Amino acid sequence: MSASAYALRMCGIVGYVGERSALDVVVEGLKRLEYRGYDSAGVAIRDDAGELTVIRKAGKLANLQAALAEASEADLTGTLGIGHTRWATHGAPTDRNAHPHTDCQGAVAVVHNGTLENFEVLRDGLEHRGHTLLSETDTEAVAHLIEEQYDGDLAAAVRTVCAGLEGSYVLVVTHRDHPDLVIGARRNLPLVVGLGEGENFLASDVTAFIAHTRTARAIDQDQFVELRREGVRVTDAQGTEVDGEVFHVDWDTAAAEKAGYEYFMLKEIDEQPEALRETALGRVDVHGRLMLDELAMSDEDVQGLSQVIVVGCGSAYHSGLVAKYAIERWARLPVQVEMASEFRYRDPVLDRHTLVVAISQSGETADTLEAVRHARRQRASVLAITNTVGSSIARESDATFYTRGGPEVAVASTKAVMTQLVAVYLVGLYLAQVRGYRDGDEIRSHFADLAHTPDLVAAVLGRMDPVRKLAREIASCERVLFLGRHVGYPMAMEGALKLKELAYVSAEGFPAGEIKHGPIALIEKGTPVVVIAPRHALTPKLVTNVQEVRARGARTIVIATDGDDSMVPHADELIRIPDTKSLLSPLLTLVPMQILAAEFAMARGLDVDQPRNLAKSVTVE
Ligand code: M6R
């Protein structure tokens, strides 16, 4: 295997300098960032004797913690440290490839998120000049390059090295000669500073330090940070100090804790009513008109729009599919929805009359970020819908609608998807209002229905015991299909995605009308088929589709509206949800599918917060 095959793609990084035990702060930060990658983890602590102690372990953070517990306390006593939790794309992650990496002298320690494309050239050059590299990572080369450039000015050495790097990176660097300095550098990947009193933090995202400070500053492209106890200096590539926006993080620390739940995902599912309420809050003025100042477009520009294009990845893409139904229905604007990873490669037709809506929980997904950049280059207006204040997508878009879901830690997205749905409904209603396609009464009525959904979601959550039981019953099945029509179709895909990412079974979501064109061949005796069938004009057609799969042996699990008995004769299992307008039904139908997937995975003994091979946000293409 080539060394570059071990290149890092997505990781969590922490840096700290202050008065507390750096080890405690760094490990606590890594715990909160472990969702970003959990193949290996490591720390470097500058101890009081001026030595750097590096401890790294393959596997989850718990392995590192066990190794730390066995290490000498004196070596790990210090108030400056860095840490890393890793997600690698190929090859078995090993202790040797875990971060931090050091130079020949053990004087420099580096953690890295990203991929260095010119790594092989850099490595060859270093070996030629007599350096010995011990790992197969690209990161180790950076430590040795800094060693070559270092003449007492660590910040200058890092800037010089970065000038020769190709690819994307966040680097956090420490040197044993500097008891009060951690350097950060960023290109294309996220890096945030936490500003404390007598202490400062660097991290991949704010959750790593919100227990200590809520004041943060995002670092921009190609900027460098010099982190000291008494201050933070941010510079450009030439070393000239630059200003930046300081923002307040209002996420509750408890929201990033499990609070007695076995898994974050279970807690996040339960937090959904509150997350929906928060996201919809304060969107109507005293006259009952929707307010969406975040859109930052004049009424004239909204009226001049000719199309909307929605981009996102994974679950965010599914939220985008629902946006199509809502915006086209309410605002009568043509909407295309595209996976962000494909968007810019097909040379989409965009102009200044196009609104691009980029949906991303993390605000850091590389494909979505690149789609934003592409759209802006073509003069389209870009609205970000994201959960993460100060994220790259938020900062690079023309306008941002922040969902207010609070931190989502579990890899499988739940409350973030729900709040994205609220956001796209609000955008749809607002566009309809400004473009005059719906009168005020109708918009108020839709908004009232939307504002009522948190109570309905809470009601669905209260009915989930039979779904848990059913999930345990079918947990040995290796294939599950999901069918829906209209907005039930994207939800079928979302239900299937949840199940495949959590339980590693083959799960597919289809528009129910399509199954007879091929997918029905997948049905065998007992194959569970989840049918998303909230009350809708299309329900009679869905009944026909359910009969088709049942006739071929499927075990039908039907999600149906209270009082609608049309599915009863065709359902082996019936999951009831309260009545709501069909366009809003995804907010209700999603809940049983989330519970089904989580419980199914738990019955298989799997870790639902950290499914294999995945990471929470994917910051490379
Ligand atoms: O942070 P983002 O919303 O941009 O992430 C997009 C996808 O990676 C994400 O939704 C992924 O599909 C989830 N694991 C699904 O549960």
Give keywords:
621 residues, alpha/beta, Glutamine Phosphoribosylpyrophosphate, subunit 1, domain 1, Rossmann fold, 8-stranded antiparallel beta sheet, disordered N terminus, binds 5-amino-5-deoxy-1-O-phosphono-D-mannitol
- For the record, what CATH class of the largest domain applies? Alpha Beta
Question: Biggest sheet: strands, sense, closure?
Answer: 8 strands, antiparallel
CATH topology value of the largest domain: Glutamine Phosphoribosylpyrophosphate, subunit 1, domain 1
Radius of gyration: 25 Å
N-to-C CA distance: 21 Å
Range of strand content = 15-25%
Q: Can you tell me the CATH architecture of the largest domain?
A: 4-Layer Sandwich
Find the CATH superfamily of the largest domain.
Aminohydrolase, N-terminal nucleophile (Ntn) domain
Mean pLDDT: 92
Q: Helical segment tally?
A: 18
The neighbouring-strand order within the major sheet is: 3-2-4-1-10-9-11-14
Write down the overall geometry. Answer: globular
Q: Which structural category do the helix and sheet elements fall into?
A: alpha/beta
The beta-strand count equals 24
Task: Enumerate the distinct ligands.
Answer: 5-amino-5-deoxy-1-O-phosphono-D-mannitol
Supply the number of structural domains.
Answer: 3
